[in-house]
Structures are given as C-alpha cells and as structure tokens.
Design goal:
Blueprint: H1 2-7, E1 11-13, H2 18-22, H3 27-38, H4 42-55, H5 64-67, H6 85-89, H7 102-113, H8 115-128, E2 132-134, H9 140-146, H10 162-168, H11 174-177, H12 189-194, H13 198-206, H14 210-213, H15 219-231, H16 241-256
Parallel strand pairs: 1-2
Helix pairs in contact: 3-4
Amino acid sequence: MRRANELGVTVLLSGQGADEILCGYKKYLGFYIQELLSSGRWLAAAQIFMTFIQTGTVLSQFNYREAKRYLPRWLRFPKDDVRGPALVEGNSWIHVGLNGKVTKRQVLDIEKFSVPALVHYEDRMSMAHAREIRLPFLDYHFVSQLVPLPIEFKLRGGWTKWIFRKAMEPLLPQAIAWRKDKQNFIVPQNDWLRTELRVSVAKLLAREWVSERLGLIDREKFRMRYEAYLRQPATGGRLGIKDIFAPLALELWACRFASYLSQ
C-alpha cells in the first residue's frame, strides 16, 4: 500500500472473496466429499476424488500441517494443548473442520471465519496510506448468485472455480485460466522462527508472559511445543507455522495492551 501511494495509484482492485464464493480453497474439496459420503453417495465421492487425482490439482498440494485443522480428531496426531485455564474452562474451541454442507461452510467463511478478518486488515493497511480498495468478488449481486449455485459448477472435472475458469477461458492464456497450482502469498515465517527470530523467541520465553497471567497461554507447554517444532524437519513434521506464530502473536499483543486488559 505504501508503494502504491508512492506510485500515485489511488484505487486498487482486490480478489478477496473469490475463493470463498467459488470454492477455490483446497478445503472445499474435503467438505464436498464429506457431504457426498454423509448422504450415502459413495460412488460420486469416489469419482470426484479420482478426477482431482487425475487432474493433479488440489490433492497434489495436500499438506498435513495446513489441513489438520479441518480433519476429524481421529485423523489428527495428538499435540499438547497450550491453552491456559481461562480458555480451557471457557470451552473456547471453535470447530472449523468437516462438519456440514459445502454451501453452509461458504456462508460461514464469508460471514464469520475468513472474509471479515481478511477485509479488516486489508482496509486498515489501505487506509493507513490513503489508498482505496475495491472488492468486485464481494459485490452482493455476485455473492448472492454464486454461493447458492450447485457445487458442480464450482468443483468439477478435477478443477476448483470451474465456472469462473470457463468464463475467463476466452480472455486469458490457457496456462492462467487453467493453472493447477494455487499459490498463496508466501511469507518465510517458518525460516524466520528457526533462524533470525530464534534468539528473540528464546528471550520472550525466558520472561513472564502477560497472556499466561491472564490465563490464556501455558508458557511452559508452549516452550515445549516450540522446541519440538525446532527439532522437526523444516519442510515436514506435525507442527505448522500457526501452532507457533499464533501464541507468540497473542503474547506480543497482550504485552502491548496490558494496561487495558482485565486481570
């Protein structure tokens, strides 16, 4: 946003919402297969699964560390619970896994889980530099038409966003319209936490935590988790970046706003 300001770009277009309304995220295939299995459509589920294997799209990018929060508990490796007593006693778990129809999950992502947070920080960053962000995929006309659309128009023939790809096919090169490897914006957090930020994390773990005093995080259990994270291979293992970064971010936030938090 700062660079856009420097270049004199006043208005920017953002693609936020496209994955939620067109089932672009890998997780939606899991929700779709689960929905088919729950309704007894085993053959259809197997056929959908095979088309994605043959196409080499979503399933070729499966990563346990990313996918585990969507898997049922019996398919997850056990891990230490680093929540403090305030969160444990408050039963703070929000189930985000495979537990319903695809369309229902799309609505939850648009209204609660995904879109609100994404557009919140995007709006803050753009306004900090006096830039205007426009979100064509979140136009209510577009959302109201595409979300209720039968899932076969979104996940089809081994492709996500099928109807959108077909619509763009005459306008874009084939390599773009039918690109297989969906890539997010990569931030090297994994490398940072293993190398240049390792000393900073160690210093943070050596002092008292505000979040622990508030009953939000068990610092000792988190320390053990971080050590296990450092021992696992950099490109594998059961612990992902969210398992480490989220508690650290919470503690840094709590430190900054400690004077405003209830004891």
